[in-house]
Task: structure prediction
Amino acid sequence: MTNHPEFLEYTGNAGRAEGYLLPSATPVQLIDQDGTPATAGGYKENYSLPDAAVLLEGYERLVVGRRVNEQANALVRQGRMAVYPSSTGQEACQVAADMCLRSSDWLFPTYRDTVAILGRGVAPLEVFESLRGDWHSGFDPHQYNTALPTTPLATQLLHAVGVAHAAKLRGENTVVLALCGDGASSEGDFHEALNFAAVFHVPVVFLIQNNQYAISVPLIHQSVAPSLAHKAVGYGMPGERVDGNDLAALLAVLGHAVNRARNGGGPALVEAHTYRMESHTNADDATRYRNAEEVAQWVPKDPLRRLKTYLDDAGLLSAADSERFAAAAETLAATLRDGLNTETSPDPAELFRYVYSEPTPQLREQSQLLAAELAAGSANLEGALR
Amino acid sequence: MTTMAQKPQSQAAGPVPAPELTGVQTITFAKALTLAMSDAMTADTSVLVFGEDVGTLGGVFRVTDGLTRQFGEERCFDTPLAESGIIGMATGMALNGMKPVVEMQFDAFAYPAFEQITSHVAKMGNRTKGRVRLPLVIRIPYAGGIGGVEHHCDSSEAYYVHTPGLTVLTPSTVTDAYIMLRDAIVSQDPVIFLEPKKLYFAKDTVDLDALRARYAPAATAAAAETSIGKAVVARQGTDATLIAYGPSVAAALAAAETAAAEGRSLQVVDVRSLVPFDDETVAAAVRSTGRAVVIAEAPGFASMASEIVARLQERCFHSLAAPILRVTGFDIPYPAPRLEKYYLPGVDRILDTVDELQWEDS
Ligand SMILES: Cc1ncc(C[n+]2csc(CCOP(=O)(O)OP(=O)(O)O)c2C)c(N)n1
Result:
């Protein structure tokens, strides 16, 4: 645990261990909400604005991510998809998560992280297979070094620690980044994951997207810690808070944590302060637990607008770039529309195919029963859904 | 750094009495559950409701809607998002004189609390040689048929019925939703209360005054008889008995309806109390027809349905004209929405199975 240089450096210096572990006093911000460069907050002056090319790529990904959210919401309204947990307003966290990883690194997403999953290169229709209700998840995690999005909260964080630990044992130069929400940080698994990560000193970075609500429950009813990032300290890893709507700051802070992990520095916890602009899912009614004024306060903090203003002011965003980004977003939206508007009929025989590597005798029997019902036309199961 | 470190603030204003529903009313299954809780909270100030999103939002299915308004934040409140924490805290509160009625948001999200439920909730009475009773109710929306996404449709009853010390109930009618939840709250033992999600918005007309009278301090012994451990015959019939519970009762009744049109008279038993199990009523029903099919949504292997069949073979062997058959979910993880119709035991599959009961004329 004590084998990394930063830690030794500070613990050698009486009284500074805490300073090294504690998050900065305010969330790190590099571009403020008006789009002007801000001075980095906190003690880690090594956070600096990413290069223009990186910010441009980030902006493109934000534009595409926003379009994905809009398209997915529309598809839910049209009945093409069962449900969509929107990440509108939170795209910067997901874009930064992707951009600070190499393709050989691993990402552990949740149900709200569609934008990050797409950014990892997972085929769009594979991502949406579960959202339209054809199959639960279903893409190959090894193909994309991206775990299946999890619904049981905080459970994936321990898997992330396991992948990181295995990578360390196997001598791979892999970093694992695991996402979760503010609510998930109350689950036992969250705490077990942090502790394991610190004790085994593995290369994993935890990113809490603190969007202020767990369905209806505001952060103040979730935790009264000074910040969620502070939780890291008790486990012996550094915590940091970052403005989750500031892509530049996210890239700097996450980039720092990832590099540190890659260089043997061990785990870190980053808390991104952001906001869920829409309801939890389309089944939720956010007006029951938050008011319009509160939501309105977050509109000017929008991650896209902020970065665009910065890029415009710095003369970094050409009209051609803007057009190119919009076109990329439209292409992806069209892929989703076309894919989801095409009727598919999931094959009932598949129900039995993947339960065991070899179907049990009972499953073979049950699959024959269903096949016979289908052949007899009696499996139109009207009563089944009553 | 300071903005978050304030004391949690009250979201709702002080307690206000809810407009009370009385007399004959058409209400949903969910509303019957809400009324059961609010009536129990009125009758007994030690009854508390807590869980994820149960306060301001009124629960994701609105089953706790209005309870915070009616009883204040001390008696109906949101917890941090931690199922093990919810059940563990409820256990401690029950040890110290309260009656927690807690909500697990969905079937599969109770699993983080499994340790608390199986190791502590279920065993407290036994470990203390009966010196401690643990009167707490764990409400769990369960089962499918709602097009839910992954982890939102499990039929998890087998885990609970297999754990000695837990009472496990599952209502299938609006009336039973009210009665059985109130009986669960009255019980001195811990109760797993399984609510079939697809019934939440089912409606029925009930006489609320009559239902409440069962729980009035002056109620007669007969009126106050508990539903715990009591199965009911939901439909009379003479040719074969369909045994179902919770979400499958509707499919059984629909099958019986169709069979009647085809000239076969099917009886339907609603088990409703999985533990304790009403051997008497169920066995009597099976003896009266000599043929039986057990219907349940959960995977059939090592299931509640298996247990029912085993008990009936033991008790009714000499009255049986055919082996007792089962129609259950397949032994697979609950499928994605667009495949669930192939999974759920429906009318056709039930009737096909009834046809296999070795009828003389076939
Ligand atoms: C173990 C578990 N308990 C309950 C739920 C139901 N649930 C789904 S999302 C959610 C809120 C999660 O909030 P947060 O972690 O802040 O993430 P966000 O949805 O805001 O992205 C809840 C309670 C769940 N998915 N898993």
Residues A 112, 151-153, 181-184, 211, 213-215, 276, 280; B 52, 81, 83, 105, 109, 112 surround thiamine diphosphate (CB under 6 Å). Residues 1-13 of chain B have pLDDT under 50 and may be disordered. The CA atoms of residues 23 and 209 of chain B lie 5 Å apart. The first strand of chain B starts at residue 24 and ends at 28.
